[in-house]
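Format notes (please read before filing issues)

Several people have asked whether sequences and structure tokens are stored in separate files. They are not. Every record keeps both together, in the order shown below: the sequence lines, then the token lines. Line labels are part of the format and must not be stripped during preprocessing.
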Amino acid sequence: MARSMRPRGGRAPADTADDGSAMLYRPDIDALRAVAVLLVVLFHAHAPACAGGFVGVDVFFVISGYLITGIVMSQVDEGVFSLGAFYGSRLRRIVPALAVMVLVVFLVCHGLGLAVDDFASLRRSTRAALLMCSNIHFRGATGYFDLPAHSQVFLHTWSLGVEAQFYLVYPGVAAFVYRRWPGRLSGILGGMAALSFVLCEVTVHDDPAAAFFLLPSRAWELLAGGVLAATGWSPQSQAGKRGLMLGGLVAIVAATVTYGRVVHPTFPGFAALPPVVGAAAWIAGGDGLVVRPGLTRVLVHPVTLFVGLVSYSLYLWHWPVLVIARRLSVEPELPAWATGAALLVGLGLALVSWRLVEIPSRRWLATRSSGEQAALVAAALVVAWLPSQCFRTPFALTDRQAMLAAGATDRSTLGSGAILGPSDRPPRFLLVGDSHAEAVGPAFARAAVVADVPGRLFFGPTLINAYRARADARRAEHERDLRRLVETERYDAVFIVRRWTLDIEGYMPTEHPTPALDEIGIVHDDGAVRRTGPAALEAALEDTVAFLERHGVRRVYVLLPIPECRRNIPQAASVASLFHDEAAIDAALGVTETEYLTRHTTTRRILNGIAAAHESVTLLDPWPILGRAGGRSRVLDRGHCLYYDDDHLSATGSLALVPLLLECVPFRRPEDASTHGHPAGDDVGRPVTRARPR
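Then the structure lines:
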């Protein structure tokens, strides 16, 4: 039997609206909520074919804009609109479930020591989530698609921040315009949406994090729903409604399936149009649609509608459960069975939250006065916030766990330009490179002290005629500084340390969604030819070695790639130490020698070629020190982390390289010459431990 998506006289049930308006219940909107939340959940679960599932949030924004505008218009028409009543309804819907989730998740993370590596960050994000300004907090802390974000249990609350900030301004503006110029509301909202979209498209290229997290560049998505509500447009024919609704679904699904890492740097912006337009099309098509057998009946199946009803609680709970499960695992990727179990736990908690928190709190608070509601909501927020203020350090850490967690802050404190070793003489060697050079600075400082040989550290863009694809405004300045140092200080030796493979291969697969290679890849431009990829790296290193040789540098030491790990080591090891010994943690988090060599095949070929072409170049291989022959790389050593994240050596870890450095000419004492089989100062072109041919 056919039934309409918009039953006449039907009011929204309390557990979907609670707005005091006479808006008609729209089952198609609950179905769209279900689609949106499932896309987000599957994306967070790293489900196949859901690399673009993050667009579910954009769908939610359109729904919110549509419903809020409809509520405002309905209440203005009835003469009952009140900002106080509006904010009361929003707080009743949002705060109780949010406060309970934040309180429980904080206590679990605190009790299990899951934030031992950065407890202060957990406390800050807790406060931001409760104040509904997570979007502002995370904009300054991390990018949504960056690896560090994946360990933030409250990252998902950024979208609540966007909506809350929208609610602060929009209802009053919409009500004012609708009262004064009812026929102009859609045009004014459309103009505001256009301005926001232009700002978004401009900002996404200059400041992607701001474009992603902040309201000004997201408002157009909510305003798109507002424009649709203000116009009230929907096709007249049932065929048109059905076609529009299904077309909207196709647009949303297409974005979900096709979007991935290549889209991240430019999202939102034009890339957000398909899901936003698709959501608007679904809503417009569903208005008054008569459901008949077929896909539309499936979309409004009772199960689908129930998922839509619990979508808010499911959104709140699924992400922290996944993050906690991943933190408890030592695997680089949570196994499918564990991911499924985590999702079931998240669903169970969502059902409990919906039944015992969302519905009762909304109904009970609705019977209180405005003042009582405000006081009770504030009390709930304070209760959820207090533990993060009372517990300023992680709970009951074992000595072993605390030592491993300390690895996150065990970093080099040496700045660019620092003198390594004695400072009473001109530097004889230069350590140059990117953040990996900075990380190994303590090893060079120790070797310089042992050998009583002064040196200098310089890091930044440090290859001649080369730069990242996303140009660094200070690149030319850094290159001038490097040239000046080499020309004036006349070094005997230069050590080059970089994350070489990042230049040509990008990030590790286990680093998940990260900036695309066309942003971070190396570009070489000598004024005549512009190169990218491996050719750019080879040409840049060739130019750099030639420049050093022209200025009297007799020995150029190149450190082959430091083994990259599967996870953030202090973060993963500190939690894993509750259940596993050091050998098991090493085995789970390190990479095999085969994986290491495969990852760096092109890099090693290029570096071996440069070494073969230049007698001055010597390659230093860290694998015999940081890895085991035929085995895995080491990540721990006697209870200490060798890395402070997933690819940078900690200050402690860098010291493992000191014996390797002491074999190099600048640090070798004359009496050591016979040990090495050739006179000191005569190892030009000889590898200390040259890359093994593969």
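For reference, the curators noted about this record: The CA atoms of residues 349 and 473 lie 48 Å apart. The longest strand covers residues 429-433.
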